[in-house]
Amino acid sequence: MSFEGLLSEEVFGFLLVFARLGSGIMLLPGFGEVYVAPRIRLFLAFAITIAVTPVVTGILPSMPEGTFEMAAVVVGEVIIGLFLGASVRLLASALHIAGMFISIQSALAAGQFFDPNQGQAGSLPGIFLSMFGILLIFVTGLHQPMLWALRDSYTVFPPGLALPTEDFAQLAVDIISGAFLIAFQIAAPIMVTSMLFYVSIGLIARLIPQIQVFFIGLPIQIALALFVLMTVLGVVMMWYLEYFEAGLVPFMSTE
Fold this sequence. Notes:
By secondary structure, the protein is mainly alpha-helical. The protein has helices at 3-25, 38-56, 67-105, 124-139, 143-156, 165-207, 213-247, and strands at residues 112-115, 120-123.
């Protein structure tokens, strides 16, 4: 093989790795947030690609001769990277869903603020839980398994092969159902407390109709929900971190 051919193979391998890692990092929680400058994300993806390329060189396919074949391989790598990043993003979205449940039960659903994690308006509990969750992910070192999952994805999803669409669909269903389950578990203490509060307010309204239960009950409901949330916050976040760590296992190699 000539020097030009060898150089082309090296460049093609580097770009192939960059296509998967770059598209995945753009969606990872913490790394791919809208408040992180695109140049920083691009530089991070470039640096990680330099570190990972020598490790996966033996797995990468040879450079196709045809343009369409080369484009198909690159597009497949981009799709795998987007799927990996979106899957981890869905794991992180459990806190946003839990915040929606909490906001509805705590009468805070009407207060909408800009959520930097979602790039749109969101409830105050959802914003707090999402930001707190990302903080804990980096404090506890769970951001490293996210990067390891991108590296090990070359063993789980070898490049150059047909996309495992059935596995993608099944894994997406499992992640989404798991996100709703952990979100319900996180919001369960506030939901139970709010239900008991509704029953109490209803009894008071029936026994003493003269009392303006909505005027009195609304601030009590908000304060009670915030108190319960602060009381159980440490426990529910431990549940979430265990769920997040377990959600990364399907993308990591067992070898």
